[in-house]
Amino acid sequence: MSDHHAKQSAFPLGHAISLGQLDRDPNRVYAELRRNEPVSWVSCTGSWFLTRHRDILQVLRDAERFTVADPNSLLSIIFGKQILSIDGNEHRRQRLALNPSFTPKALRETLTHKITGRAESLIGKLTHSHVIELRSSFASRYPVQNILDFFGIADRLEPSMRQWYDSFEKALSNFKHDPAIEAHAKKNVGHFMDMLQQQLAGENHSEFLTVLSSIADMSTEDTCRNALTIFFGGISTVEALILNATWSLCADKHLMQRVLDDRSLIKPLLEETMRWASPVQSSIRIATENTAINGIAIAKGDRVACMLGAANRDPELWENPDDFDIDRRNLARHIGFSSGSHFCLGSHLARLEAEIAIDLLLETLPGLSFNPELASAITGYEFRQPRELHLVWDKN
């Protein structure tokens, strides 16, 4: 029996999974795997799925046996070598250089005013109508504008940046390996690289771009590829966090009223959103040696998918994990921003942007709720959020 057929036989639940199932409702799939095949070979993705929090944490924190360096990953195919595809001393050196720019104190002191201004401008435009589609009108634009400010790039590039981002998102979830999707994204990677090289050649750099370009032993191309990765991450998580948190508020009127009455609850709201609807659902590693996870043999070179969304609903850690509950005592244990050496560099920036956005949305748009005439569902396997979020508010 071939290795492929042996895996199909040994892991029937994993073999039966389809990408369509994962897109519609991955949590039901994860729950069944956690109970019966916590380490499972999922044929449609060509990878091992881990769905238990403890197993996932073990892999994410073991860069010796499980590496991000995978030249065949979608991330490497589209973005090339960059900070998310390296481990060891090289990764450590780059992270140490970048970390000071992403501390809560540094971000609040340098960016709060600009981020607030961006939010006020965009949300102010929503007051012209009582009917809103929040993604296109706000959530898809706001993080792009903030990342432009962070890099010191002109506002006129916002439409191009958004177009590039959309092509990257499609390519990074292109598990069917559609060549047209890949080619379009690579073309836009080239456009981004050209744009940033021109930016670097100019005299006026943002403080962060100066830091990024000053890392020792890095070429201009290395700098641009790291910027590309930070640019993408700086949009994807923020957009999803705002949409998923707003969706959760609208789904629970009691919760909405609690947060309206006490804005300090926005912080646990965002943490529970990261747990309950993790914007990025997986973190991929490659086994560097023959090893085992929970007694299951993993061969050197095998791809291991640490399903963050599954870990964040593990009943071993959270009682009634499918419930949205901002009063959980152990919310800090969620791994929506991953864990280990590749913990999300921009996690504090994402929190700051989302906190400002949710506060201003509630302040400016009283009575915010779902539009009863248009459905809005959270979907997605790799990047999970509403593709459209249709809302209404009390415009008096």
Question: How would you sum up this structure in a few lines?
Answer:
With 396 residues, the chain is an alpha+beta fold.
Summarize the structure in words.
- The structure is a single chain.
- By secondary structure, this protein is α+β, with helices and mostly antiparallel strands.
- The chain has 18 helices and 12 strands.
- The protein has helices spanning 3-10, 12-16, 19-24, 26-36, 53-60, 74-79, 88-98, 104-126, 134-139, 142-151, 158-172, 179-201, 207-213, 220-250, 253-261, 266-276, 308-311, 347-364; strands at residues 39-42, 47-50, 66-67, 131-133, 282-287, 291-293, 296-298, 303-307, 369-370, 378-379, 385-386, 390-392.
- Strands 1-2-8-5-3 form a 5-stranded mixed sheet, sandwiched between helices.
- α12 packs across α14.
- The N and C termini lie far apart (70 Å).
- The mean pLDDT is 93.
Number of strands: 12
Number of helices: 18
| Uncertain residue segments | none
Largest sheet strand order: 1-2-8-5-3
The portion of residues forming beta strands comes to 5-15%
Radius of gyration: 21 Å
| Main sheet specs | 5 strands, mixed
**Separation, N- and C-terminal Cα atoms:** 70 Å
Q: Classify the secondary structure makeup into a structural class.
A: alpha+beta
Order of helices and strands: HHHHEEHEHHHEHHHHHHHHEEEEHHEEEE
Write down the overall mean pLDDT. 93
Using the alpha-carbon principal axes, give the shape.
Answer: globular
Relative helix content: 40-55%
